[in-house]
Amino acid sequence: MTPTAPAAVTPEDLLRGAGLRVTAPRVAALRAVGESQHATADDVLSSVRAELGTVSVQAVYDVLHALTDAALLRRIEPAGHPARYERRTGDNHHHIVCRSCGAIGDVDCSVGHAPCLTPSDDHGFVVETAEVTYWGLCPDCSA
Amino acid sequence: MTPTAPAAVTPEDLLRGAGLRVTAPRVAALRAVGESQHATADDVLSSVRAELGTVSVQAVYDVLHALTDAALLRRIEPAGHPARYERRTGDNHHHIVCRSCGAIGDVDCSVGHAPCLTPSDDHGFVVETAEVTYWGLCPDCSA
DNA sequence: CAGCGCAACTGGAATCATTCCAGTTTAAGG
DNA sequence: CCTTAAACTGGAATGATTCCAGTTGCGCTG
């Protein structure tokens, strides 16, 4: 069912649009990440296996890398936690991580637009991106 | 508050001031971190062993944790790199990391003071700290 | 200034996320 | 179809860090 409106972009379209082969593990992985916000590689593995049966650990890591390189996914790696993946890409948003349970929330940049992108002294580095991570306690853990 | 000019604060003073026992591995670890900016646990291990002879891996991790908890050290954990430790604590400065070689530089907050500390929407989280990491290429790697 | 208790340390094994490897399967272009 | 590079399998390896159980020693108390 592909209605006329381009509202529903299928995983298949996304993959083809990025010049990637359309395979069952990739489609399933894209769906899995879209459904559960900030899924870990292990979450994706479980999800994909539930849908397809046997899928190797390596396949999931390969897929996640390919999708991340193609900018269909964004990888976030909070210190002390396994990497997580999300579908929101290209909007330079940030994250808030619960120190207690590891829960993650999305946060738009607070001061309008990329204020943090310009370090006062860049030590001669060529700066490409600025990543902001807020640490605190989620509603459940602060109770 | 330190009464007179604390020109040379010894590692021993720092440890005692934090209510920690003064032991050879701790003193050596503090010195090691002070001498090499952004040292890894492994750097500290080598350095401490060079000075003291046999020191266990565990001792170094224990010491680094104790000193970090006591706020004598700050731990930074860039995604994909082993943790690093530094002596500059309490001033909420940030870091710039080379995507190629992992080199790290210190960066003071660009917009005066803690502008990034207030997320636009905190999702009910209690925010404690904001951590900014710049990613790019160091002078050597961008050449 | 001698004993004692708890924090610190030893060394070896275990953990966990992730990657490496070598061989097999499969999507998609000619 | 037929070919082939890309994708996938399964098992072993890696590297930073932690767990564990037993030993040592700093520094307080008597």
Q: Care to describe what's here?
A:
The structure is a homodimer of 143-residue chains. With 143 residues, chain A is α+β, with helices and mostly antiparallel strands. Chain A has five helices and six strands, in the order ααβααβββββα. Chain A has helices at 11-17, 24-35, 41-52, 57-69, 139-142; strands at 39-40, 74-76, 84-86, 94-98, 104-107, 126-137. Chain A has a three-stranded antiparallel sheet with strand order 1-3-2. Chain A has a three-stranded mixed sheet with strand order 5-4-6. In chain A, helix 2 packs across helix 4 and helix 3 (41-52) packs across helix 4. The longest helix of chain A has 13 residues, at 57-69. Chain A is globular and about 45 Å long. Chain A binds chain B through residues 77, 79-80, 83, 94, 96, 98-99, 105, 107-111, 115-116, 118-139, 142, and chain B through 77, 79-80, 83, 94, 96, 98-99, 105-111, 115-116, 118-139, 142. The first copy, chain A, binds a DNA duplex (30 and 30 nucleotides) through helix 4.
Secondary-structure blueprint of this entry?
Two copies of one chain form a homodimer.
Chain A: H1 11-17, H2 24-35, E1 39-40, H3 41-52, H4 57-69, E2 74-76, E3 84-86, E4 94-98, E5 104-107, E6 126-137, H5 139-142
Parallel strand pairs in A: 4-6
Antiparallel strand pairs in A: 1-3, 2-3, 4-5
Chain A binds a DNA duplex (30 and 30 nucleotides) through residues 20-23, 25-26, 40-42, 54-59, 61-63, 66, 82-83.
